[in-house]
Amino acid sequence: MAAAFNKKALELGCGDLSDYFWYHTIDLGDGLITPGTYDYRFNLDQFHFPDNLTGMRVLDVGSGTGFFAFEFERRGAEVTSVDLPSMANLDRFPGETLEQTIRKVEGMMREHALYSAEQREEIFGIEALKELHRTHLDGPFKFCHGRLKSKVARCYSTIYEVSREKLGQGDFDLVFIGDVLVHTINPLQALATVAALCRGTLIVSQVLAETVESQPLMLYVGGDQPGKDEVTWWWPNQLCFEQMLRKLGFREATLVGYHTGRVRPGGGAYKRAVIHATR
Fold first, then answer.
1. Which of 81, 115, 125, 153 lies most in the core, judged by the most C-beta atoms within 10 Å?
2. SS3 string of the chain?
3. CA–CA gap between residue 17 and residue 233 (Å, rounded)
């Protein structure tokens, strides 16, 4: 699919996009569809988003390629997208060097990327952090933003530092956090920072710890080998999430279901919980 996309992009005069990593599959029109690792186009109903977001302000935290930000905009919302200002801002395990973290990210991208061996060597041999940020986050998002003629606003911030001042506006009617908290060392702090910006509904989608205990627990999944993890450390169970959200001021916090699919190109199945919290 990547080869077909790159060929089509060249035919449409978009230039050479073969060094980009596409986290999401996005239909950009004119037969141009990005070769994303995750294709959410056919299971959107599993997230239980409102069909009509006209007049609402929506915050998409950790946008990646931008699929959800652009989808919220398509449904009528005024959308702000938040992502890291640099790959140097990735959370790191205490004592881990930046170089170790970058190597892990490159390894994860190799596993999921849809490139030839020659392209991989060229892309992942790049040591400059700004190049990794361009190919993994900023470049793909900006390309899709331009092709879609989108008005989504972009804010660069870590999840811990996002604020009304940085965003340049007040609270949001809907806040979405997808597969972000699992990549934070301090997920409660991260959740609390974002929750403070939400005046309506907060939707979290990520893997949960499937524990049989009736206690609110957070499972550590970072392993015991220095420098070896998937930039993932904590999986809360359902009760933990519900209690944290209620303590953060949400009246209701409910597991509304799961979204499922397969990761490309390997085809491995995934399952993510969808939790809705309302003020």
1. 81
2. CHHHHHHHHHHCCCCCCCCCCCCECCECCCCCECCCCECCCCCHHHHCCCCCCCCCEEEEECCCCCHHHHHHHHCCCEEEEEECCCHHHCCCCCCCCHHHHHHHHHHHHHHHCCCCHHHHHHHHCCCCHHHHHHHHHHHHHHHHHHHCCCCCEEEECCCCCCCHHHHCCCCEEEEEEECCHHHCCCHHHHHHHHHCCEEEEEEEEECCCCCCCCCCCEEECCCCCCCCCCCCCEEECHHHHHHHHHHCCCCEEEEEEEEEEEECCCCEEEEEEEEEEEC
3. 32
Q: Is residue 247 part of a domain?
A: yes
pTM attached to this predicted model: 0.91
pLDDT in tens, 7-50: 999 999 999 999 898 999 999 999 999 999 999 999 999 999 99
Residue 7 located in a structural domain: no
Q: What is the dihedral of CA 233, 186, 48, 173, to 10 degrees?
A: -160
Percent of the chain with pLDDT over 90: 73
In a domain, 6, yes or no: no
- The whole-number pLDDT of residue 110 equals 61
Query: Which residues form the domain of 88?
Result: 42-99+128-278
How many structural domains are present in the chain? 1
* Contact (Cβ atoms closer than 8 angstroms) between residue 146 and residue 32: no
Q: Is residue 237 part of a domain?
A: yes
Q: pLDDT tens-digit profile of 243-257?
A: 999 999 999 999 999
